[in-house]
Amino acid sequence: VQLVESGGDSVQAGGSLRLTCSVFGYRYRRYNMTWYRQVPGEEREFVSAIDANGRTDYAESVKGRFAISQDSSKKTVVWLQMNSLKPEDTARYFCKLYSPLVGRDWWGQGTQVTVS
To answer: Would 111 disulfide with which of 8, 31, 60, 70, CB 3.0-4.6 Å?
Structure first.
Protein backbone atom coordinates (compact mmCIF):
# COMPACT_ATOMS: atom_id res chain seq x y z
CA VAL A 1 0.00 0.00 0.00
CA GLN A 2 1.31 3.43 -0.91
CA LEU A 3 -0.09 6.86 -0.10
CA VAL A 4 1.00 9.89 -2.11
CA GLU A 5 0.14 13.41 -1.00
CA SER A 6 0.12 16.30 -3.44
CA GLY A 7 -1.15 19.85 -3.75
CA GLY A 8 1.07 21.57 -1.22
CA ASP A 9 2.33 25.01 -2.19
CA SER A 10 3.22 28.48 -0.94
CA VAL A 11 0.25 30.82 -0.72
CA GLN A 12 -0.67 34.11 0.85
CA ALA A 13 -2.87 34.34 3.91
CA GLY A 14 -6.52 34.10 2.96
CA GLY A 15 -5.80 31.84 0.02
CA SER A 16 -6.88 28.28 -0.66
CA LEU A 17 -5.27 24.97 -1.46
CA ARG A 18 -6.58 21.50 -2.09
CA LEU A 19 -4.46 18.63 -0.92
CA THR A 20 -4.85 15.18 -2.44
CA CYS A 21 -4.01 11.84 -0.90
CA SER A 22 -3.90 9.13 -3.54
CA VAL A 23 -4.12 5.51 -2.44
CA PHE A 24 -2.33 2.76 -4.35
CA GLY A 25 -2.42 -0.95 -3.75
CA TYR A 26 -5.14 -1.07 -1.12
CA ARG A 27 -7.47 -3.87 -2.14
CA TYR A 28 -10.43 -3.06 0.07
CA ARG A 29 -12.92 -0.19 -0.14
CA ARG A 30 -13.32 0.45 3.57
CA TYR A 31 -10.74 2.50 5.39
CA ASN A 32 -10.38 5.51 7.63
CA MET A 33 -8.25 8.38 6.35
CA THR A 34 -6.74 11.02 8.58
CA TRP A 35 -4.82 14.17 7.73
CA TYR A 36 -2.12 15.32 10.14
CA ARG A 37 0.31 18.19 10.00
CA GLN A 38 3.67 18.78 11.54
CA VAL A 39 5.97 21.72 12.04
CA PRO A 40 9.67 20.92 12.56
CA GLY A 41 10.41 20.44 16.24
CA GLU A 42 6.76 19.99 17.18
CA GLU A 43 4.40 17.07 17.60
CA ARG A 44 2.39 15.86 14.65
CA GLU A 45 -1.17 17.11 15.12
CA PHE A 46 -4.55 15.93 13.96
CA VAL A 47 -6.24 18.01 11.26
CA SER A 48 -9.18 16.08 9.85
CA ALA A 49 -10.50 12.57 9.30
CA ILE A 50 -13.09 10.66 7.31
CA ASP A 51 -14.11 7.18 8.30
CA ALA A 52 -15.32 4.22 6.30
CA ASN A 53 -18.93 5.41 6.68
CA GLY A 54 -18.15 8.90 5.45
CA ARG A 55 -18.29 10.57 8.84
CA THR A 56 -15.91 13.48 9.18
CA ASP A 57 -14.07 15.13 12.02
CA TYR A 58 -11.99 18.29 12.29
CA ALA A 59 -9.58 19.93 14.66
CA GLU A 60 -11.07 23.02 16.27
CA SER A 61 -8.42 25.18 14.64
CA VAL A 62 -9.60 24.28 11.12
CA LYS A 63 -13.37 23.89 11.56
CA GLY A 64 -15.27 26.01 9.07
CA ARG A 65 -12.18 26.49 6.90
CA PHE A 66 -11.14 22.97 5.88
CA ALA A 67 -13.23 20.23 4.32
CA ILE A 68 -12.32 16.58 3.84
CA SER A 69 -13.91 14.50 1.11
CA GLN A 70 -13.44 11.26 -0.77
CA ASP A 71 -14.18 10.00 -4.24
CA SER A 72 -17.29 7.94 -3.63
CA SER A 73 -16.80 5.59 -6.55
CA LYS A 74 -13.36 4.02 -6.40
CA LYS A 75 -12.38 5.43 -3.01
CA THR A 76 -8.79 5.84 -4.10
CA VAL A 77 -8.53 9.57 -3.43
CA VAL A 78 -9.15 11.73 -0.37
CA TRP A 79 -9.03 15.52 -0.62
CA LEU A 80 -8.49 18.20 1.96
CA GLN A 81 -9.87 21.53 0.80
CA MET A 82 -8.24 24.32 2.78
CA ASN A 83 -9.73 27.81 2.63
CA SER A 84 -8.99 31.05 4.45
CA LEU A 85 -5.47 29.85 5.12
CA LYS A 86 -3.51 31.40 7.94
CA PRO A 87 0.24 31.55 8.60
CA GLU A 88 -0.29 29.11 11.48
CA ASP A 89 -1.48 26.52 8.94
CA THR A 90 2.08 26.33 7.65
CA ALA A 91 3.26 22.75 8.10
CA ARG A 92 3.97 19.52 6.33
CA TYR A 93 0.70 17.68 5.80
CA PHE A 94 0.51 13.89 5.95
CA CYS A 95 -2.27 11.44 5.26
CA LYS A 96 -2.67 8.18 7.12
CA LEU A 97 -4.85 5.27 6.06
CA TYR A 98 -6.12 2.91 8.74
CA SER A 99 -7.65 -0.38 7.68
CA PRO A 100 -10.17 -1.81 10.15
CA LEU A 101 -10.06 -5.02 8.11
CA VAL A 102 -6.31 -5.51 8.34
CA GLY A 103 -5.78 -3.72 11.62
CA ARG A 104 -2.86 -1.51 10.60
CA ASP A 105 -2.12 1.85 9.10
CA TRP A 106 0.06 3.37 6.38
CA TRP A 107 1.49 6.87 6.04
CA GLY A 108 2.38 9.05 3.10
CA GLN A 109 5.55 11.16 2.82
CA GLY A 110 3.78 14.46 3.20
CA THR A 111 3.34 17.66 1.23
CA GLN A 112 4.49 21.11 2.34
CA VAL A 113 2.07 23.98 2.85
CA THR A 114 3.49 27.42 3.47
CA VAL A 115 1.23 30.40 4.21
CA SER A 116 2.72 33.87 4.42
So the answer is: 8
